[in-house]
Amino acid sequence: MEGVGAALLLFPYYLPFFHPQNHYIYHHGLPVTSLIGGLFVDLLGCSILVTGCLIGAQHLRPPLRKLAEALFAGLMLWSMVGFVLQVLIFEQSRFEYWGRIWWQSAIAIPLLPCVFVFFLPRYAEPAVRAIRVVIAGFAFSALWIVPQLIYLALLRQPVQNVVSAHRPDPAQTNSDRRIVWILLDELSYNQTFDHRAAGIELPNLDGLRAVSVSFSDLNPIGYGTNRIIPGLFSGRRIDKFRSTIDGKLSYFDETQRRWLAYDPNATLFGLAQRNGWSTGIDGWYNPYCSILAPVLGASEDRTVLANAAALPNVFWAALTHRKKINAEEHIQAYLNIMARTKASINDNKLRFLFLHIPVPHPPGIYDRQAHVLCPGGNYLDNLVLADDTLGVLMREIAATPSASQTTVIVTSDHSWRIPLWRPAPGWTREEERVSGAKFDERPVLLVHFPDQKSGQDVRVALSQMLEHDMIAGMLLGQIENPEDLNTFLTRQGR
Hints:
about 50% helix
């Protein structure tokens, strides 16, 4: 019982599966069968190891046995503190001070019972027994943890590939027009156009803005990607969201004061489908396969043993408060998305295409001097990568048969979130200097119509939700050039 209880306390990376709003399951996006299988392998291995150590301790001489038992009790006491803090962190609490003293506590708390055993045995030995009873009692939580995990593993079944497309009825098509919507994650209007850092050159963004309608004063509809993009798709502001255990999104409607299921048919992609547009989508972070089930899917990509090997490292990073976005993984995500993105652009049958690119979102993965991908760098390096990426995508678009009929929309979900990244590992002096520690919340919105030769800057303060209404007008054939867009803005009272 102590072995099982210790395993549940030492490796609580099952906790995200029990979040009341299922955020981890929602963002994971993939079936969790192999992930949970790997978790079971780790818990079983830890249970056997701890049980073996405790049995072995019984054969030691009494002084050494008492010392080993005290050390085990101290380790468990420390793990209980860490477990409680992990639970609170999942409830969105912050414990920056605990992170600063983590290593000291990892040594001091386990050693404390050992010291007491020698100097205060009368009090230490009952305390050690009490802690061991608590650990054994915690094993009973497996009676509900294990069945719930098995249920999740059986419920989340594999679906199709990440990239998919809906083919509308051939009798209803928009074969002469195309819309490519490119979202560059965390692209700041302020850093890109208004107050660019010295030495940063963004020729592709500058060139596109010179022949596009640009919006210089957009008010964002949120702070996080997980709320902003589903909101833009549906035309509804989403401040609170939760997921079912099978990954289906729901949101809290402030007007009706109740939770509603997120309906993919009530999004821009549903509108496109009803109006004869074939659709394609590829992206990062948001589980598009879940929120737009008729369009997308996913597949599980790791075995049980691979997950069993990977999960302890993930947990250890979180436990030691050193967890941060891995640059190598971010590079791989970028490369994977770019490969699929190019294929989607070159699939001329996809007439309404949304591409969510994971830059200039941190961590730094670019050397802006050499223009090569590599771990390191900062937001400014990634900003140059975003510009280079846009250049690649625009060249791909220009080479397609529909280039002369393609409207290109370049947006960002939110600006550079300085309050989020400034306290995080990896923040550089250069970022501190160019940001001024001030958060300019304006995202980017550029709209380039076919054959548009000049630019126009809309300086009026507008809600980011304008994007939804504008793209809906394009899908309905009401906005096909800058003049139509100006008429639309006039009707909106801008």
